[in-house]
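JOB MANIFEST
job_type = single_chain_structure
chain_count = 1
residues = 402
[input]
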Amino acid sequence: MNSDSTNIITGNSKILRGINRAMILNIIREKQPISRSNIAKLTGLNKSTVSSIINEILSEDLIFEQASEDQNVGRNPINLYLKLNKYHVGAINIDSSITRFAVADIDGSIKGQSSIDTDSKNPEMFVKKCIKELLKLSSDLNISELEGLGVNIAGIVDSKNLIVNFAPNLGWEDFNIGDAIRKVLPNIKNISVGNDAKSSALAELWFGNHELNLSNFVFLSIGPGIGAGIVVEDKLMNGEYQASGEFGHMIIFEQGDLCTCGNKGCWEAYASDRAIVSQYLAKRPGKLDHNVDFMAQDIIDMAKRNDELAIEVLKQTGYYLGLGIANIIKAIDPHAIIIGGKITQVWDIIYPEILTVVTQRAYFGRKKIIKILPTSLKVLPRLLGAATLAIEEIFDGFKITA
């Protein structure tokens, strides 16, 4: 996230101080090590205001100061750093077949992970089971308290009110997951809930290491379905009804294959993990593991071993991915498309197919080709995305309300 003097907002002093505090804390996160004087230059704030806010953040134990050893200057500058191993957040990624858990530090580093099978029939009971598993993981890591909790789900999520509006793969509709969590964790400091693809985009924005400008990009999360997170000018786009980025259900073939949403010809019916499995089994009927996650991984592993049918199916998937990506490029005009999911393990197979279709269908004389890249995140993006939802609350926790 980029910070500069254009972010400074005038108004009520309490609101202004909260905004400036969030801006300074994020600059330290992004630029560390960094001195107070350099923070003042970047923000345009006067040095006394910067020092006052930094002293406040130091008292919260979120950062620390340390003299740098620079032999080229007479006086070693005092730099600021994030303080790690002090505050931790919990992360829960609820997928249709597997639910994953993590405990993370405020720099996005994962301290530990675990998983259980998803059983979504009774959402409140399942949330209770998830919290129990997360607390067990925290205990195993000797972490006694979580500063916050981030949860993400494939579906339409009201992040403000912590309500799952519609998650078709789980069978959840109008489920107040915030209330369900608070019943089990009444003392948790902050709870954040979001869509898994959008939070994956947030994780890429905060913790990705692509060497290019990622202020405007689309993150595609390829799993049992296809979700997307859209970032415009460093901000995650949610939409009027929290439903932006539902590209998985755009129609690419009228009267095509039936999608889980009930419509025919949706993109994810052709380019998701579920589609990979369906296309493979249609050509080679047989018994694979009943779990889509494991079946898709089996096919990817077979392709790595040069199985011709697996390679053929994955190339076809690359073609279908290209069709959808071409439409997204024409609609959004991003700087880059970032793809996450197990399919990136066979990037050498799918990328040439994607590029061929996109080049033919998307550019209309455009001089610069948009970058299409696999995620740079080393941890499952959806899981790190859940952690990032909670971490964001610590760094940008000051909310302006009407």
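[summary]
The chain has twelve helices and 16 strands.
The chain has three domains: 5-82, 88-198+383-395, 209-376.
exit_status = 0
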